[in-house]
Amino acid sequence: MSGPRPGTPGATRTCPHCKTTILESASVCPACKHHLRFDPETAGGQRERTVPLKVEGAIRPQASDAALEYSVVVTVRNERGEEIDRQVIGVGALYPGEERTVTLAVEGLEIKGYRAGRGRRH
């Protein structure tokens, strides 16, 4: 699968700090929070940031005498239900009395001047 060309919405690059794949337009890495470049549009509030999806939940062992192994998996699907990406975000074990909270947030950044129908969408 090839991605969008550099300079188009959805184009990606690698964060020089944590090596995570991020959007080319990012001025701050969403994974490690390092600043990558100064973006006057973002600093001045000219580009609108949104969080169209945020889900939070807690997990804990159900039985009082058993441990619970867990895997946090995120899957992204397109409008046809086809899997685009699947990542294991974290794994571990919980013992009686322990709890983990998992938050999934999708952050969006408005891209002005983009004409619909051009290029590949994700």
Can you characterise this structure?
By secondary structure, the protein is mainly beta. The chain has one domain (12-109). Helix content is 3%, strand content 40%. The chain contains one helix and six strands; from the N terminus they run E-E-H-E-E-E-E. The strands form three sheets. Strands 1-2 form a two-stranded antiparallel ribbon. The radius of gyration is 18 Å and the shape is elongated. It starts with 11 loop residues before the first strand and ends in a 13-residue tail after the last strand. The relative contact order is 0.23. The model has no long low-confidence stretch (mean pLDDT 82).
Task: Briefly summarize what is shown.
With 122 residues, this protein is mainly beta. It is built from 1 helix and 6 strands; from the N terminus they run E-E-H-E-E-E-E. The longest helix has 4 residues, at 40-43.
Topology:
Layout: E1 12-14, E2 21-23, H1 40-43, E3 49-59, E4 68-77, E5 83-94, E6 100-109
Antiparallel strand pairs: 1-2, 3-6, 4-5
Can you tag this structure with a few keywords?
122 residues, two-stranded antiparallel sheet
